[in-house]
Amino acid sequence: MPADIKSSGKLRVGLSANFPPMEFKDKDEKYVGADVDLQKKLGEVLGVQIEIVEAPFDQLINSVQTGRVDMVMSGMTDTVERQKSGDFVDYFRSQGRLYTTGARAGEFTKQDDACGKKVAVSGKTEFFNTIKTLNTTLCTDKGKPAIEILAADSGPAARLQLDQGRADLAAQGAENLAYFAKTEPGKYATVLDPLPSKPNGILVKKGNTQLLNAIKDGMQKLYDNGEYKKVLDQWGIAYGAMKPEINGVK
Asked: Domain range spanning residue 235?
């Protein structure tokens, strides 16, 4: 563990609290979610207190680079491009899904039913690039009408476009949609095939190998002692379990 974190006894964690069930605020404005629970357990095995620093998702990488936070753990996909800005400890395999309103679910039975439709997606997440690729491989390369991609500021903003009828479909993580199925049953329906799964990672500043290895070892302990699985089971996302890995996306 780096000396400055040891001396302060705190590990500052950046997150954007609008991604249930991974990180969000409850009715009392307290941070809750699977990532939040894992952060607490990671702090316990590392012998430090967790200090949450909230920021918009598109500012989280900069927060690590400038030293405002020590790490980011906020549903962030590990990508080769992001590895230029920092190093990742991958810890959860997220799977994207296309979804629509419950009333329109019957309109989307074949994968290419998405072609020619309006798809809302956060332009600040990896799902945006996934939908761009899907548009090429599924639609335009096969002579079908292109998907009209509506880039939103966030996942909730994309969902709002769907709610208001400005989009036919939206894209988000399966973990989010499972949460909405419990809190708002019947309002939304996942449709078509799952999008390619990619790992979420804990991001630290590029070259901070001491902290990177400490986090990886801490997550491995949680994996080995069963605490990691308990958290995922509690939030209904056990399907995404994986052993921690450094910069697993090549």
From this structure: 3-94+199-246
- Calpha distance 90→150 (Å, rounded): 29
pTM of the model: 0.92
108 and 156 housed in the same domain: yes
Here the CATH number for the domain that contains residue 112 is 3.40.190.10
Q: How many CA atoms lie within 13 A of 195 on its CB side?
A: 27
Q: Using an 8 Å Cβ cutoff, are 217 and 106 in contact? A: no
CB 53 within 8 A of CB 63: yes
Q: Is 193 helix (H, G, I), strand (E, B) or coil?
A: coil
Tokens describing residue 116: 């020619």
Per the structure, the count of domains in the chain is 2
Backbone angles phi, psi at 29, to 5 degrees: 65, 25
User: Over the stretch 61-81, which tens digit does the pLDDT of each residue have?
Assistant: 999 999 999 999 999 999 999
Nearest-5° Cα angle at 123, 204 to 69: 20
Coil, helix or strand at residue 235 = coil
Mean of pLDDT values over 133-149: 97
The CA distance from 195 to 193, in Å, is: 6
Compute the distance between CA of residue 129 and CA of residue 75 in angstroms, rounded to an integer.
Answer: 16
Nearest to 136 by CA among 127, 147, 126: 147
Burial 82-106 (b: 16+ CB within 10 A, else e): bbeebbbbbbbebbbbbbbbeebee
